[in-house]
Amino acid sequence: MSTGTVPKPIAGTSEFLDDRLGAGNFMRRNLRKVFPDHWSFLLGEIALYSFIILLLTGTFLTFFFKPSMEHVVYAGSYDPLRGIGMSAAYASALEISFDVRGGLLMRQMHHWAALLFVAGMMVHMLRVFFTGAYRKPRELNWLIGVLLLTLALAEGLTGYSLPDDLLSGAGLRITEGVAISLPLVGTWITFFLFGGEYPGEDVISRFYSLHILLIPGILLALISAHMILMWVQKHTQMPGKGRTNNNVVGAPFYPAFMAKAGAYFMFTFGVIALLGAFAQINPIWLFGPYTPADISAGSQPDFYMGFLEGALRLMVPWEVNLFGTGGGTLPLSVIIPALVPMGIIMTGLALYPFLERWITGDNREHHVAERPRNNPHRTSIGIAAITFYGVLWLLGANDELSWTFHVSLNWTTYVGRVLVFVAPVIAYAITYRICLGLQRKDAAIIGHGVESGVIKRLPHGEYIEVHAPVAQDIEAHMRGKEPVPTLPGAEAALKTGPDGVPPKSLRGPVGKLRAKMSTAYGGEKIPLDDGHGHGHDDHAAIGAGGDDEKSTAH
């Protein structure tokens, strides 16, 4: 869109800054910067606004929380725990909940914002993945996003453990068991975090430093870098009328985008405030203080750690004794669940843009997003990964499933061990067929129009439904489809006859494998129709005649 005349507020502000900082041109240029618009872009803003709320509520909580494992006797206003010995950290968390004005609201808002922060990043990352928005030139921003998600999991783990209640202590015990099982570095990491044998006297203070200083500082730096790159590169825009890789169709940052962002921040803040006020979460006073000898039944972590919990519960009890009974022991039943699922998901996310470019040979810049159906293999891979994650997440509550549905705990575990391998394959196959079906539907709409609901009788007695031409904006959205690129010479590399002369890079076992992957992954699966349908006048326009008018089949 045309930016037109610079609004007076921008011109006045620019002049003020230009007189003092020489930044007038910078302000004028950037405040009128045009951004594409789509509802899915707001998913990333949920994570950003949740992070801001986390910083605000977390700052409030630091004024009252005491990160110490010093033994105290509780003398606060919560009668059931009065006179009970506990850590100073747990006592201060109780004080925040019952004796600090607005403390419980801030605690619960902080917890809800943490959940929404991680969930927002996950959904935003899925949007970027399924639309191919990670492609050149946005690979670096994608890697920053993967690192942000990893750090957010660590930030949630450290914060969840700070109150030192029985539930978080049980999770901390699992964390210690996973850390100490790591080969070579496990003992060092455990002593670094706990300051000695579990539970030690330093874990809360050290987690507190990680939670409020180190990890938030890194998160803030990465989010700033993420936003700067997004500002320079802008969002990918969805395919549509007049949208290409060489232009941006949207609204300027000021006032349109700024007003929308401000309103959406207030909406996010309101939702989190309502959840903090009316939806109880993490009632630590019901769990009691942590003691290593106790554990509550049905303990469950926050949702973002559920898949690691599920991996631990599904893993078979394998271990390897090195050099006989006198050597060390590798507890594979802990190492594999701790490292493999996280490694598959995070490493796969980080490498995918580069693997896809290696397979397709596509080195072009992309500023128009793809509809998920138009790249069926990528969409199927994404759904398979979600299914893998979902099975692990669900089986992290296998004891609750067993108790609720009155089935054997062993059988839930056995079924989970099968599903974690079989379900992603089934999900891949189903998703691929759905994507092809949706592509066929698009081709039919382009070729024949849309159903109008008008029934017409042909001269020979047959009844048909008249189809109307598709709206121009919808047609442009569909025609934004491009064939998934394939490597030049990939088909020739697979031929065995004299006509097959593949490029040098596609010769040999690795080259042939790359060629096979390229031809399978890329190419046009279902071409869009050229507008000429088949059958009985199935794309005739509404109003082409009455019931007695003859119709000509195409």
From TrEMBL:
Classification via Gene3D superfamilies: Cytochrome Bc1 Complex, Chain C
EC number: 7.1.1.8
Swiss-Prot/TrEMBL keywords: Membrane, Transmembrane, Transmembrane helix
Annotated transmembrane regions: 46-65, 111-130, 142-162, 174-195, 207-232, 261-281, 334-355, 376-395, 415-435
Pfam families registered for this protein in UniProt: Cytochrom_B_N_2
Enzyme class: translocase
SUPFAM superfamilies tied to this protein: Transmembrane di-heme cytochromes
Region (Disordered), start-end ranges: 523-554
Cofactor names: heme
Residue span(s) of domain Cytochrome b/b6 N-terminal region profile: 13-239
InterPro entries associated with the record: Cyt_b/b6_N, Cytb/b6-like_sf, Di-haem_cyt_TM
Reactions catalysed: a quinol + 2 Fe(III)-[cytochrome c](out) = a quinone + 2 Fe(II)-[cytochrome c](out) + 2 H(+)(out)
Comp. bias intervals (Basic and acidic residues): 526-540
Name by which UniProt lists this protein: Cytochrome bc1 complex cytochrome b subunit
Organism of derivation: Planomonospora corallina
Source species taxonomy: Bacteria, Bacillati, Actinomycetota, Actinomycetes, Streptosporangiales
